[in-house]
Design goal:
173 residues; 37% helix; alpha/beta
Length: 173
């Protein structure tokens, strides 16, 4: 079986995502997500829905060992009613299926946008704008080190602090 060649948006995502590392963000955005003009924000137009783009990006990230995503969904997504946004129930199911088992953290959209703005002051952000036209359906990925987790970092910091304290508290002769 021949592997299908990636289309233009997938090639752009591969090229852009390959340059990202720890503390960078990737946003798989719904169609009305605000365009950013700030340096460090790269944008790719993807002619697919959010779940297909999430699936592609997570597959791409899983091929590398240098980063792993922390997945965020907007808290509002769970409360949007299908009566007001027809198709949202199905999209929610498809988004969760596209997460490859990653357990998402939910935050208010405004909090996520604030985190994104703060990150962009020093780090790059890749925005993949999809054709999904349903509110609060953007998926936010904060890139973490792939070979170093929070538990390892905590243990390292504890050890450094213990060594510092041992140097400060020396027994009297």
């Amino acid at each position: 079986m021949l592997m299908e060649q990636p289309g233009p948006w997938q090639a752009a995502v591969d090229r852009q995502a390959g340059q990202l590392g720890y503390r960078n963000w990737i946003v798989i955005a719904e169609a009305s997500f605000p365009a950013h003009s700030r340096p460090g924000v790269r944008q790719v137009a993807a002619p697919v829905e959010v779940p297909e783009a999430v699936d592609y990006v997570l597959h791409a990230l899983e091929k590398t060992e240098n980063v792993r995503p922390r997945v965020y969904l907007t808290r509002e997504l769970r409360s949007v009613e299908n009566d007001f946004a027809p198709g949202i129930d199905e999209l929610r199911k498809r988004i969760h299926a596209s997460l490859h088992g990653h357990e998402p953290t939910e935050l208010d959209q405004q909090s996520l946008l604030t985190l994104l703005e703060d990150a962009n002051r020093s780090f790059d952000v890749l925005v993949i704008r999809t054709q999904s036209a349903l509110p609060y359906s953007s998926v936010f990925l904060e890139l973490q080190p792939g070979y170093w987790d929070a538990e390892s970092e905590t243990r390292l910091r504890d050890r450094i602090e213990q060594e510092r304290m041992q140097r400060l508290v020396r027994p009297f002769p």
